[in-house]
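Annex B. Sample input.
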Amino acid sequence: MGDNMKALITGASSGIGFEIAKYLASKKYELILVARNRERLEFIQQKLPTKTTIIVMDLSNEQKVKELCVLIKNQGIDILINNAGFGNYGNFSDTDLANDLEMINLNIKAVHILTKYALKNMLKNDSGYILNVASSAAFMPGGPLMSTYYATKSYVYKLTQAINYELKKKKSNVVCSLLCPGPVDTNFNKVAGVSFKTSSLQPSYVAKYAIDMMLEKHKKVIIPGVQMKLVKFVSRFVSDKMLLRIAYRIQKKKAN
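Annex B, continued. Sample output.
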């Protein structure tokens, strides 16, 4: 796999997105990397051993997302990685509305638009892979102190699950996977204004695990690490009220 195969990765300048780029490059995929940080993208472009195109773009702007769809129209994307996203911390009544809406635009709208666009093209060819990066937060009934972030990831989770069922009914060979990591040691924590007290997975491990599970196993919901698999299993037997209490305590401990 990889010869003349092409992958588009959003949020590719750091963290999981960057590690996925490195891993796919090692498998000889051509890459299209999208992020806001030109300097970082140019640095990555020089380091990767495969043909890499960079697109500097703010995907929290809906019009820019649509422009990206036009730019990649004839590119023949084999893999779409919807990784761009961020979170913020604080009581819902205190967080900045403009920041909340920017998050909704990036974490939901951009993922929605790109998934729909890529899926239409992949269905025509009856081949292709989409990886939507959500979070273990998606399994919870809500996330007090990170309410908007949790809600956006729940949207991505439910949207991807529904798409999967539709693909199954179509008997399609297109694979649409969902990555739901727990704490990962990335720049996300700094942006969100939190610090994880529990052990974090390395983004390189999460990236390799996610891509292998998607390409080789066609896994629909990908949960790296034993700890988060256990959390998802146990959450089935716990009331929403208790899960909200647990989520609140976890977020409270993260505060700097």
